[in-house]
Amino acid sequence: MTQRNRPLGPMTKAIHAGEGPDPATGASAPPLHMSSTFVTDQVAGFSAHDLENGPEGFLYARWDNPTVAMLEKKIAAMQGTEACLCTASGMAAATAIFLTFLSAGDHVVVSDVSYAGVAELARETLPRLGIEVSTINMSDLEAVAAAIRPNTRLIHTETPVNPIGRLTDLAAVSKLAKEAGALHSCDATFASPLGMDTVGLGVDLTMHSITKYIGGHGDAVGGAVAGRADLIAKMRAEASIHHGGILSPFNAWLIARGASTLPLRMRAHQVGAQAVAEWLESHPSVTRVIYPGLASHPQAALAAQQMSNTSGMISFQVGDAAAGQRVAQQMIDRLQVIHYAVSLGHHRSLIFWMETAGLMETSFRLEGAQLDAYRAYAGDGIFRLSVGLEDAEDLIADLDVALS
Ligand SMILES: *Cc1c(COP(=O)(O)O)cnc(C)c1O
């Protein structure tokens, strides 16, 4: 007997969720609907507040578009949530979370190390709007607990954190958020939906820059937030319909094409990164490697418990800032396969030097114990290496020439 009602596996979901043969043409591949408006047979209101009781089907692309909706269903299925909202970029996804769930007088606890744009948004923009912000080392659970105030509405984590690969115990932070009556949002871009069961770990809103692993090919910018249907509906009304930061249908179509192979790619990213990380760890010019799949990761036990795929992101050091700058120049001059460029999660490998002093002046501004905790992972600076899908031997040969 075949079992029709068993849950679909992750590969099947990535390929089929949100899609189906086109009823009009029978096309097997999903169509690209660029239409900004949709002919309707219903008399509808034109307010975001009409969303819940709005018309069946589509009205206007800032509300909803069939190609974007297809990608939203696919990401929700992969992340295991009821719903998903796609946005113009990962930054638009972070902004959507903050500006939907925070108002003047509210307090938010944000990871003291996070994607630079998120760090600057939290430190510069939110206080300007009357929102109180605490930036906390999320690997220090006592510090997270101590930061919570009666008006704390949101705790925003990121794990593994960009760019140093430090981890946050999501189940523990979810518990603290729940006790405080706050939402827990997590930027899971580094891990991808395949890396962590954020829903099982109690996260309310899982955010991704889909420019990275979900799209996976470095040719489209986008963002996503996955979570409960009521939370996502609130975000759609605020962030899409009012703020207007919607994903283009063309980008949604490209990113959905990439997302179909995400489980396969994540497995290959992990295998490649493990091989490169182990090789880097044995290289005489490399003084420190941080990768969640290495036994030497300071939080290896948490990685094993929380991550089902350790992804392709490696951080490594080559000594002090002067050594880092010298090796960065060698990489720019000598790398033939790996691109010296920002961004991550693509099929092409990417590497970039990130000096601690510069990041502290601009994005993070950490001092005292928080700066010491950063330096425990990054020293004077790190190379952030996004291991792509090339043959690991070719990446190793490329790095060997650049490091010597
Ligand atoms: C890239 C990135 C972002 C921002 O995403 P964009 O698509 O570039 O706007 C947010 N968080 C993390 C962890 C990222 O790596």
UniProtKB/TrEMBL annotation:
Domain of life: Bacteria
Enzyme Commission number(s): 2.5.1.48
Swiss-Prot/TrEMBL cofactor(s): pyridoxal 5'-phosphate
Keywords for this protein: Pyridoxal phosphate, Transferase
Entry keyword Transferase: yes
N6-(pyridoxal phosphate)lysine modifications at: 212
Region (Disordered): 1-32
A GO term, aspect molecular function: carbon-sulfur lyase activity
Keyword Zinc: no
GO CC annotation: cytoplasm
CDD domains in the cross-refs: CGS_like
Family annotation (Gene3D superfamilies): Aspartate Aminotransferase, domain 1 (3.90.1150.10), Type I PLP-dependent aspartate aminotransferase-like (Major domain) (3.40.640.10)
GO BP terms, alphabetized: transsulfuration
The family this protein is said to belong to: Belongs to the trans-sulfuration enzymes family.
The protein, known as: Cystathionine gamma-synthase
Organism: Falsiruegeria litorea R37
Taxonomic lineage of the native organism: Bacteria, Pseudomonadati, Pseudomonadota, Alphaproteobacteria, Rhodobacterales
